[in-house]
Amino acid sequence: MRSHHWPERLGQSLNALFLALLAIVMIFPVYYVVVVSFTDPGEYLRKRIVLFPENWSLEAYRYLLSTPAFPRSLGNSAFLAVAGTLLSLAVSASLSFALSQKQFQFRRAIMLLILLTILFNPGIIPNYLLVRELGLINSIWALILPSLANGWTVLLLKNFFDSLPAELVESASIDGCGVLRTWFSIVLPLSLPALAAFGLFFAVGYWNQFFSALIYLNEADKWPIQVLLQNMLLSASNVDLVAPGEQIEAPPTEMLKMAAIVTAIAPIAVVYPFLQKHFAKGALVGSVKG
């Protein structure tokens, strides 16, 4: 009996060992970036490679926040994430709910147009010409308005609204509720799990805006954090991040880069656990309990 089970146990042990090694390989770069960003500058200059720092320090973060460019870029990205997510959810959810209503007479034509946007991507040049004609060049709204809704999101949300019991909407209309009141009082509360999931996707997309910002934004004052981070990583010095009057001695450039990376990924990493619980919730939990 024992000889019969040992190959299976050996296979499980090898799989566990492989997964453990893979986890170490994937986690170590993140660990190293975080550790270096919190290391004392003097210790980093002595060792250069720090795995277990003796002295922890916030000097790199203190210096970054004392510069005008870094907090400004954080503010730009925060505005993009908040305003873009709210507007994208409002437009996508409203359009999807309208398309899920069978009495909406133009829904087939609009659905066809949405499918065409999925099948045929216009490309960079037409998008740039559109943004230019709208007068949005060098405006942060150029990163929000052209991408308020996309075809895949609208289709997925439409399928979600189609799965809601039609009796809920019919009962509301019998009780005298209009379309707007039905949307805000009945459909929207039942849609919170789906909206939370798509809201996280929108927030991550807007927070990580990079390529569009390079194309449409000409002034460094309007750069989001990802563009500033890219310039920092490609630069051999911290010439773009100089504190006013040099009131704080600049830490090593590599430490500033690590601290900037941690700051750029921290907001999404903090928000994600609070929204994760909504992913597993059923869409009809509220109606079943009610």
Describe this protein's structure:
By secondary structure, this protein is an all-alpha fold. It has one domain (about 40-290): MetI-like fold (Orthogonal Bundle), CATH 1.10.3720.10. The chain has 14 helices and no strands. The chain has helices spanning about 1-35, 40-45, 60-65, 70-100, 105-120, 125-135, 150-165, 165-175, 180-190, 190-205, 210-215, 225-235, 255-280, 285-290. α1 crosses α13, α3 (about 60-65) crosses α13 and α8 (about 165-175) runs antiparallel to α9. It is globular and about 75 Å long. The chain starts with a helix and ends with a helix.
Q: Could you give a quick summary of the protein structure above?
A:
This protein is an all-alpha fold and 290 residues long.
Fill in the keyword field for this structure.
single chain, transmembrane helix, cell membrane, MetI-like fold, mainly alpha, 0% strand, disordered C terminus, MetI-like_sf, membrane, 290 residues
Largest sheet: none
The CATH topology is MetI-like fold
Number of distinct helices: 14
Structure summary, number of beta strands: 0
Give the low-confidence spans: 282-290
**Overall geometry:** globular
Measured as a percent range, the helix fraction is over 70%
Spatial separation of the terminal alpha carbons: 54 Å
In CATH, what is the homologous superfamily? Answer: MetI-like
CATH class: Mainly Alpha
Radius of gyration: 25 Å
Judged by helices, strands and strand pairing, the structural class is: mainly alpha
> Under the CATH scheme, which architecture would be assigned?
Orthogonal Bundle
